[in-house]
Amino acid sequence: MSDGASIRRRRLCLACNQRFTTYERYEEIPLMIIKRDKRREAFDRNKVCKSMRIACQKRPVSEEQLQEITTLIEQRLYITHESEIPSSVIGENIMKELRQLDQVAYVRFASVYRQFKDLHQFQQELSQLMGKGDAQDAPSSGEPTPLP
Question: For residues 24 and 28, what is the distance between their CA atoms, to the nearest angstrom?
């Protein structure tokens, strides 16, 4: 078993002093994602990357950056040591990273992920994005800023 997926160990039986070999393998617990409709499916990093790739079409974002974000998100999920994670956790992580990477890609992803019902919800999201990016110290009146 020299495929690198197992560790070969030589051992000694304490009762009879006979040597023997054991093979140890790392057992990875599959990460299950709980979808909005309560279905469960295995985590697929390609789906995460594909969804970001769609949001980043025609934007100055490299494939390498998308792969790095995907790896970062995957690591965050495994660090939780949970075997089942709601899809909303992944969506929020993607939005957090896209917001820092490219704001247009962030808005594209958020519009699909958050399933905006009308223009008002979309406008609120843009207002929050513009408020945090441009005028962090300006007081918020709670009303959405009209688009020009």
Answer: 13
Q: What is the distance between the alpha carbons of residues 42 and 37, in angstroms, rounded to a whole number? A: 15
Among candidate residues 30, 70, 71, 78, the one with its CA nearest the CA of residue 53 = 70
Yes or no: say if 76 and 94 are a contact pair by the CB < 8 Å rule: no
Confidence of residue 50 (pLDDT cuts 50, 70, 90): very high
Would you list the domain boundaries of the chain?
30-130
Residue 34 sits at φ, ψ, to 5 deg, of -95, 115
Segment holding 123, helix H or strand E: helix 119-133
* Calpha distance 136→79 (Å, rounded): 32
* Percentage above 70 pLDDT, the chain: 84
- Dist. CA 110–CA 1, nearest whole Å: 47
Burial class (CB in 10 A: 0-12, 13-18, 19+), 58: exposed
CA end-to-end distance (rounded Å), the chain: 66
93: left (phi over 0), alpha (psi -120 to 50) or beta: alpha
